[in-house]
Here is the input.
Amino acid sequence: SLQVGNYVTIMGLAHFQRCGHPVIALVGGATGLIGDPSGKSAERQLLSAEDVERNAAGIRENLSRFLDFDSKTAPARLVNNYDWMKDFSFIGFLRDVGKYFRVGAMLDKESVKARLEGEAGLSFCEFSYQLLQAYDFLHLRDAFGCRIQIGGCDQWGNITAGTELIRRLRGEEAFGLTFPILCDSSGKKFGKSAGNSIYLDERRTSCYQFYQFFLRTEDADVMKLLRVLTFLPEEELRALEAGVRAEPEKRAAQRRLAETLTRTVHGDAGLAKALAASEVLFGGAFGALTADELEGVFADVPST
Here is the structure.
């Protein structure tokens, strides 16, 4: 499943599509077998081909809630880099791609320098990741005319490796756009590898837990999240912002954030389940909830 940390980039794609641009969601079927060192203090656990295939299916389902794959004017497209990387031999990749990269420039990437200075070091497997992502950008440019790649700010080094490869091989400009990483109040980012994930799949994070996560947003953060993660009009956002200043105890902005995102991710039925579960904690009836839903409600509170 994708998780809240991916939500920012998903919204970036959604904004581009709403403005009339065809968008491409890239699943890392090949690169997922290696692992990206960006933003990591230790090497990722390598995935099996079966794990990657299962993950790709889950990501496809998640993205269908945000992107319109059936649009007549600007359809979204889902591609898997395993489809074009699987045909490369090691020697062929070195000849066709590797010779255009300079080790000094690769070592100068922030993600690489941080790992080399740490105790865990950096494997050659991870070091080569930026070559694969750079080739992805080149392939998407050739196959679909893609000229801009977006991602979290930890992807800057990988994205610029791609713009440089396109410049060298095609003599054209390509562009990168990055977004700030979504972090919790301690500054730690939300992600599977960080161990504090809020998943978009109900089987991993219940509708109730998802709703409560955003309902607990601090006053200092709620307007930022509303602007980044929703399409609410500016007029409504200004009214909510005024409410945060004048009547913070009502938590109207947090409630609007939680309801909007839960409805977007889990639909009206998911939001109804989250609200019903929330009522249970304040003396509501248990009858409408399943055992699994009840366990989700009481997972974070003392209960017997």
Remarks:
- Residues 140 and 146 are 6 Å apart (CA to CA).
- Strands lie at 23-27, 76-80, 148-152, 175-179.
- The chain has a mean pLDDT of 86.
- The longest strand covers residues 23-27.
